[in-house]
Known about the structure:
By secondary structure, the protein is of the alpha+beta class. It has helices at 14-17, 51-65, 98-104, 110-129, 182-185, 193-208, 218-227, 242-251, 262-265, 282-310, 316-324, and strands spanning 18-26, 31-37, 43-50, 76-81, 85-90, 132-133, 142-144, 153-155, 162-163. Strands 1-2-3-5-4 form a five-stranded antiparallel beta sheet. The protein has a two-stranded antiparallel ribbon with strand order 6-9. It has a two-stranded antiparallel sheet with strand order 7-8. A hairpin with a 5-residue loop joins strand 2 (31-37) and strand 3 (43-50). Bound molecules: adenosine monophosphate. The site of adenosine monophosphate has 16 residues, from strand 1.
Amino acid sequence: MSCMFKGVICDKAFGDYYILGKELGRGAFASVYKCQQKGTSNFWSVKLLNKKKYRKVAATEIGILLKLKHPNVVRLKEVFESAEEVHMVLELVTGGELFERIITRGHYSEKDAACAVKDMVTAVAYLHRNGVVHRDLKPENMLYEDLSEHARLKITDFGLSKILGTDATMHTVCGTPTYCAPEIFLGKKYTQSVDMWSLGVVTYILLSGYEPFIASTDREMFKKIIKCDYEFDSPYWDAISENAKDLIRKMLMLEPNKRITAEHALKHPWVMGLATKNVHMEEAVVQIKTFNAKRKLKKATEAVLAVARATHHLPLDMVQMVNIGDSTTPNTNTNITGGNEKMT
Ligand code: AMP
């Protein structure tokens, strides 16, 4: 059999070297399992993709991951290809998702949020330096390496990312609407700066527990995103530092070329931990709990849509219709207030 993807092992089988363990999770494109390297006590994770179904996705993800090596990016060890499947052996991370950790910890402050944002921005700066745009940055793609207190946060799931030339632009519909930059909705060509918009949305949620562009329907949400219509609502944002708000404003900048870059964000005082508050944010934790529970419920629907988009089973106008919805379609990106009633 000739290998479909460059750099993969296809003359040997995954099962010759690894014992498959329990399922760890399921994403839009694949199932992830724990596995053990035979004859050793080394554990890894393995992402299993069906070649026929997700040919394009697998090729994209593998090509990118093989090139990347960074402490804040989940490492790809090796890839096995058989006639039917692709087994991607990845670094095993055991610390859980970003929001899961926040809601289980006793103390959560701006300082903790800034540490998480710093890890994310560091990873994104590395990706961008290497001409890679993630395109689907969201809290469920941020995993902690282990359960220790100072565990690193790592970015995973590059299924929708794409290698870019230095000045290249893209115009493919992206992942999850809540985190999508306005230029994507508007069908404009876009660049690496879409990742900084997504990080702006994640940072906003990290500090408040709710999304910046809250609306009762997808269409309303879309309108708000393209106008960059969000607020730091009282009382939720009253105690949040000006430094944090300044960073969010710079990330959620409507014009992509004015949006802060990852390299510049790394030097922002809030990200650097200067003047970051260490006061416990009880209300934000309560809101994040609710947000996380709702997000998990809708995960299955999103996965189906993402697969349809990525494998081009839906034409572009259909995808936009599904994403944007119509005035009678309930918002699939349900916010914690269950509508456009703000947090009162
Ligand atoms: P993904 O297909 O990357 O979205 O992964 C789906 C789920 O599998 C994630 O939400 C995690 O719970 C789990 N997972 C993904 N990658 C890893 C990994 N490297 N180590 C442990 N669990 C993982």
